[in-house]
């Protein structure tokens, strides 16, 4: 018996050695040799919001391919975070891809992103907030492909029914409270938002607070400003004039607005596309978010065009990204699927062309970009979980937990 | 080729339930390690060593394809994952080249002993899954057994139609079933509409993070659920207060439990049914002559005969409930209030969302240890307690 066991152990060991021997070839860590030929084949991975976006990106990539003589394949990811993580581990990533702001720091820290910011001459055209979000170790790593901000969207019919006019659009917290209470009647809730930091955070900004300091090196979650903001939101929740989207059986604010369950919601400019597709008959107006004690404040969201460090076609990929982030292309995307350009110059043109989206376009001037620190995702997920219980919770404790959870991530994430 | 094998005095051919409860009650013997292999040849027939060697070699040759496949796709990845669980690996380099920092047991420490978000989340996921297992396994086993007993009745009309109906949830994709449950259990969904007919205002199932036990205790006025005080709030274990440990599965988790019981009972019903049909009629007839009641028949004849199958069903149930992932992924992703977070889902999210593959692997290994321990305990509880089983050899 021991004999047999020994043989079995020996065979297992041998098999393992062989397999790990082989495995060393799955990650050769030498510098990736760059393809310099005329005709290169590039792969692009995107997470598409729908057919319109897929088609727009494919068309743009095809146009670039024609112009540059290369070929491009555009793949649509089902779960882009997971697919990218796998391809990075296997050292076979796509050449260019969407990077979510919550994953940006992980990828940049792991050295998977090729920082091409210094090759972009007119990088200043992108808003400073967005550039700050996609900067790692002082280097601009990737270009924001578009941007979104939050504004207050108002259901016109319900607004009129409550006897309100355009003069009553709320510009302060007090006014917001008044109109929200007035609009709440029967099945209609005055204000419906998603119960997450990406909405509630706007109030923190308006109160003069935020989760971290400007250069994301220190947690500032437990400040009095943030407490003030959460207290305000809590008072609205307790009065019943503010509800979270899932409390009224909807997945997001736009759905609540379209189903006439909400008179107002706080959403980004993706709302235009969503309303057009699902509730084309519902009229609504987007106005700037009301100002808090510390003035106006909103949040900005973005994804960037990453170029893989392991790509053999970095130069061509950067060229493709330059093409995709040109003003012309951004305006084409805006026409096709309603995203806002991330270039300031194109944004002005966008605001002119789409006056109804002016509230969102103007908000980029004072918007707060997302937190991009490695390992911060779970901290924010936990914050979202706590915010869902805000109506009955203690704002101070929620913020203290956020502060405590975030601190280790900031120290190790840098 | 192997003359010895044919002479191998196997245990007397057993019909699974044929010998009555006693034969059935001895699963230990044939299950003993090495029982099936040539090594088990009894020593009553001494054979030349060479012959045995050759036999062994042939044996290994025949099992080698499976050994290779299992080794390459099961054992090796497990060992690799074990190595990853000792690293601080972000998934963007080769974990076997020394680029990833070796941190020893730090990942395990962060989950088990160090105060922080990781430990709180892990403890929460363990609590959730514990309640899930405690409710799902007994419920699905009892339901499956009941269904099997019903459709096993010879007098029952439309037996095959019923069997198909009961088995149907098991063959339906769990993703599809989960999605339908999402609609059924909406705040204004079908379930709440039905409840409103009888004057009950149902909760907003998937957004209700209140624990059922704490609701019960709060309803009885024993604990003030919004501000728990006293020993329950003051003591904590692994970063969760006793109150949080004892609050029970949330309303949302109960919905998932309901789903799991409904979908899995069909499969287990089939297993029970097969075993029930293996019980010889003579046994039941003999019992009938003794004049037993239906309950006594179930308690003293049927259940003992089902014992090995019961062990199988409980083991399978235990393993699959500790690994619950797809329902959580589709229905709630851990929400509301982390009350549907399970270790399997936490492992996935810390690896792929937080790029902390080391910690993800560590969670998986803690889960593995837990399942192995549970199964060992269960095997111990189900062991043959009386020596009478040996009498019939």
TrEMBL record, chain A:
Keywords: Signal, Transport. It comes from the Bacteria. InterPro entries: SBP. GO terms for biological process: maltodextrin transmembrane transport; maltose transport. Residues 1-27 form the signal peptide. GO terms for cellular component: ATP-binding cassette (ABC) transporter complex, substrate-binding subunit-containing. One of its GO terms (molecular function) is maltose binding. Gene3D superfamilies: Periplasmic binding protein-like II. The keyword Manganese does not apply. Transmembrane segments: none annotated. SUPFAM superfamilies: Periplasmic binding protein-like II. The keyword Transit peptide does not apply. Belongs to the bacterial solute-binding protein 1 family. This is Extracellular solute-binding protein.
């Amino acid at each position: 018996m021991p004999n047999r066991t020994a043989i079995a152990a020996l065979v297992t060991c041998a098999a393992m050695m062989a397999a790990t021997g082989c495995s060393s070839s799955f990650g050769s860590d030498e510098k990736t040799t760059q393809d310099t030929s005329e005709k290169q084949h590039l792969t692009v991975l995107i997470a598409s919001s729908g057919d319109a976006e897929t088609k727009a990106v494919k068309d743009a990539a095809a146009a670039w391919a024609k112009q540059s003589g290369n070929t491009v394949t555009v793949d649509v990811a089902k779960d882009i975070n997971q697919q990218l993580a796998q391809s990075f581990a296997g050292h076979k990533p796509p050449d260019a891809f969407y990077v979510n702001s919550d994953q940006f720091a992980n990828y940049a820290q792991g050295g998977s992103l090729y920082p091409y910011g210094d090759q972009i001459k007119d990088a200043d055209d992108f808003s400073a907030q967005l550039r700050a979000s996609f900067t790692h170790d002082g280097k601009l790593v990737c270009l924001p492909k578009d941007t979104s901000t939050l504004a207050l969207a108002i259901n016109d019919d319900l607004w009129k029914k409550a006897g309100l006019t355009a003069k009553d659009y709320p510009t302060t917290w007090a006014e917001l409270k008044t109109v929200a209470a007035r609009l709440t009647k029967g099945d209609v809730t005055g204000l419906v938002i998603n119960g997450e930091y990406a909405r509630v955070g706007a109030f923190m900004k308006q109160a003069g607070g935020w989760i971290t300091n400007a250069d994301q090196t220190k947690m500032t979650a437990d400040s009095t400003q943030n407490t003030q903001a959460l207290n305000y939101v809590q008072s609205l929740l307790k009065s019943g004039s503010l509800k979270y989207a899932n409390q009224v059986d909807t997945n997001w604010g736009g759905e609540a607005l379209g189903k006439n369950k909400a008179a107002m919601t706080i959403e980004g400019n993706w709302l235009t596309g969503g309303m057009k597709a699902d509730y084309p008959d519902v009229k609504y107006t987007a106005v700037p978010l009301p100002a808090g004690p510390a003035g106006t404040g909103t949040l900005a969201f973005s994804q960037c065009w990453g170029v893989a460090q392991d790509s053999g076609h970095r130069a061509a990929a950067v060229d493709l990204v330059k093409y995709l982030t040109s003003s012309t292309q951004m305006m084409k995307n805006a026409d096709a699927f309603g995203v806002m350009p991330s270039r300031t110059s194109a944004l002005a043109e966008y605001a002119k062309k789409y006056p109804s989206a002016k509230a969102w376009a103007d908000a980029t001037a004072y918007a707060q970009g997302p937190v991009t620190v490695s390992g911060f995702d779970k901290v924010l997920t936990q914050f979202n979980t706590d915010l869902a219980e805000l109506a009955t919770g203690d704002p101070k404790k929620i913020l203290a937990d956020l502060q405590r959870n975030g601190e280790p991530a900031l120290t190790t994430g840098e | 080729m192997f003359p010895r094998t044919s002479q191998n005095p196997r245990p007397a051919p057993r019909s699974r339930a044929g010998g009555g409860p006693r034969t059935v009650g001895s699963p230990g013997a044939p299950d003993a390690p090495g029982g099936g292999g040539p090594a088990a040849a009894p020593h009553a027939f001494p054979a030349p060593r060479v012959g045995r060697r050759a036999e062994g070699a042939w044996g290994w040759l025949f099992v080698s394809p499976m050994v290779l496949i299992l080794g390459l796709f099961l054992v090796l990845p497990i060992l690799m994952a074990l190595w990853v669980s000792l690293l601080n690996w972000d998934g963007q380099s080769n974990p076997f080249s020394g680029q990833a920092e070796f941190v020893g047991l730090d990942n395990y420490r962060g989950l088990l002993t160090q105060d922080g978000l990781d430990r709180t989340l892990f403890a929460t996921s363990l609590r959730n899954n514990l309640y899930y297992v405690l409710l799902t396994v007994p419920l699905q086993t009892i339901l499956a057994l009941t269904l099997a007993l019903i459709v096993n009745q010879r007098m029952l009309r439309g037996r095959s139609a019923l069997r198909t109906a009961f088995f149907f949830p098991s063959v339906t994709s769990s993703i599809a079933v989960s999605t339908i449950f999402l609609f059924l259990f909406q705040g204004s969904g079908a379930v709440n509409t039905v409840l409103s007919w009888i004057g009950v205002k149902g909760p907003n199932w998937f957004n209700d993070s209140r624990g059922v036990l704490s609701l019960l205790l709060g309803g009885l006025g024993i604990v003030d659920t919004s501000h728990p005080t006293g020993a329950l709030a003051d003591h904590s274990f692994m970063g969760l207060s006793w109150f949080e440990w004892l609050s029970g599965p949330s309303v949302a988790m109960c919905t998932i439990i309901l789903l799991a019981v409904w979908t899995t009972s069909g499969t287990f019903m089939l297993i029970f049914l097969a075993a029930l049909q293996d019980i010889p009629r003579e046994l039941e007839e003999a019992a009938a002559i003794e004049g037993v009641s239906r309950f006594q028949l179930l308690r003293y004849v049927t259940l003992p005969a089902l014992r090995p199958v019961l062990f199988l069903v409980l083991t399978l149930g235990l393993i699959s409930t500790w690994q619950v992932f797809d329902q959580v992924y589709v229905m709630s992703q851990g929400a509301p209030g982390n009350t549907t977070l399970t270790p399997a889902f936490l492992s996935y999210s810390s690896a792929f969302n937080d790029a902390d593959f080391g910690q993800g692997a560590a969670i998986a290994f803690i889960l593995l240890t837990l399942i192995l321990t549970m199964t060992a305990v269960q095997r111990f509880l189900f062991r043959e307690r009386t020596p009478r089983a040996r009498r019939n050899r």
